[in-house]
Model the fold of this input.
Amino acid sequence: MASEPEYAVEMRDVVKRFPTPEGGEVFAVNHVSIQIKQGEFFSLLGPSGCGKTTSLRMIAGFEWPTSGEIYIDGNPAGRTPPFLRRVNTVFQSYALFQHMTVFQNVAFGLEMEKIPKPEIRRRVGEVLEMVQMGNLGGRKPKQLSGGQQQRVALARALIKKPAVLLLDEPLGALDLKLRKEMQLELKALQMDVGITFVYVTHDQGEALTMSDRIAVMNRGEALQVGSPVEIYERPNCRFVADFIGESNFVPGTVKSLDGEFVRVYLPNLDLEVSGLPQAQLSTGEAVVVSVRPEKIRLTDQPVVNQANIPARVMNTVYIGSDTSVIIEAGKGVRLKVWEQNKISTLDPRAYYTRGQEVYATLFPENTLVLPEV
Amino acid sequence: MTTTTTSPLAKKKYRLPFLKKVRENPATQGFTLISPSLIYLGIFLLLPLVLVVILSFMTRGPYGNVVYRINLDNYVRLIDPLYLRTLGYSVYTAAFTTVATIIIGYPLAYYIARVPYRQRSLLLFLILVPFWTNFIIRIYAWIMILRNEGFLNSLLQNLGITQAPLEILYTPTAVLIGMVYEFLPFMVLPLYTSLEKVDLSLLEAAADLGARPLKAFLRVTLPLSIPGMIAGSILVFIPAMGMFVVPDLMGGAKTVLVGNLIRNQFLTSRDWPFGAAASMLLLILTLVLTLVYTRKAGFGEEFLV
Done:
């Protein structure tokens, strides 16, 4: 729709402080500014206590910002109570009304809008059909499995046709296989209905699978906002690189700035490498170099024209698609390397063995130079 | 060793063969397990009840003794309008007490269930403190408050609200006040238990779906607290039906409930068979009313808005 504002939700410099029992104050959300586009699947990702749920609750209207403002569909939300916001929530614990049937649960939101009974019946039927619960309308929540309760919670929120649907770790209580299924289903549903989803999770795999964009949060701050590829391939700080996927970190100092790349000296390896700076850096600055395990090349002979790091295999773990190899180089620097098992063979010579001498190669475009801290 | 053994007991040797049968029979095993409760209930509930039932079909002897001659005279006597009115009045008093304790107790229980945890234990403790004092003494305290020269009347007169003392003590009103006071904790505690269990996220969900606070209360909190209300009503209504101390002390001689009637038959008139028959009538009436009430309340949630 052309008339709609660009952002479904915008958090502008939002702060939320809570008093602690000791009389102090804790910053649950600390100067967060995020723009969520219309129709986007947006995830708030971070460890517990990072402020992601508090942010979601502020968008829903259960909490009010201490300072800053939240805009929903371009309008400042201020202290609008939840029952007047065009925003609906799928709660972590589902929060289904146990004394009502599935049908009554889903109809609740429409009854509050005083919509006539026949229309309620029709729309509840439709939305239950959409979440594949069409024949279970007469059941009570207690008679449903976790996955089914999840679908009811989803239907109950979706029937309100909200501007934004908020989901607070909705798949947290499901077992792994069902969770994977529901992830794809949720994503398909979101594309189908075209509603903006704001999804809170601590599961980075889930966020990468489903999201159009992700905000990585820690200690109340939004550290990086970007697409899954950006977040994974170009993390802007050590926390993001560490929290999303796995990474090897080696401390160093900036030797020189060289256009797109920087030269970094790694004292523990006694080696100078080139890497991509992920922040404004200056010569002499202490940095940390980050390389993903799948992006290190291992060879048993040195590679010409590359920075070869002589190393020794400390341990190997065969995990089917990959073999995880731990190598040690320089002054006790341990690096994790994933070797994809592209050739099917039982020949032990095709795999690295413990104690073997190897060479690790770091490519400049795979080597990210991040500010320390 | 080709025999299949199903129970470890099967291997045990018994000196008396019938013991083997008793020990290995699942029915007797189950019976043994519940026997403590069965024996307790048998001695303290079933036996006295059977005695009362038997007694209610006997006759009073000329010296207050019991003549063992089966007849229905006691029950026929109970049909007298005088006794039926007493019974009706008892039902009214017990029902009034139940409703009043719900009206007073609900906001109290709701408040306690919503304050921070530490204050909650303190408030619950305060609810229970009166039980540390003897019931009779607490009733006398109410007499001190309500009588013509009592605390309430001197307060009202000193404030100029009333000119002459209000005659409350030794009226049916005093009985109702005493009954509500006495039974309030029995309503508050089960109500608190069910209100405390109402997850706050349910109220957030209701608000999220567009329910204003009052609507959310009527549609979510209230229906979910019905079990507590039923439990509280049973705990209040049943003992209130048989209460005789409060009407005795606070109602003067004017208010007679079925509890007083029964007590008088046993202790004053020494007509044990008639007292037993009245007890049976009270028992059956209470049972029927309680059943009807819980059945109705069980369906109650559908009627709410």
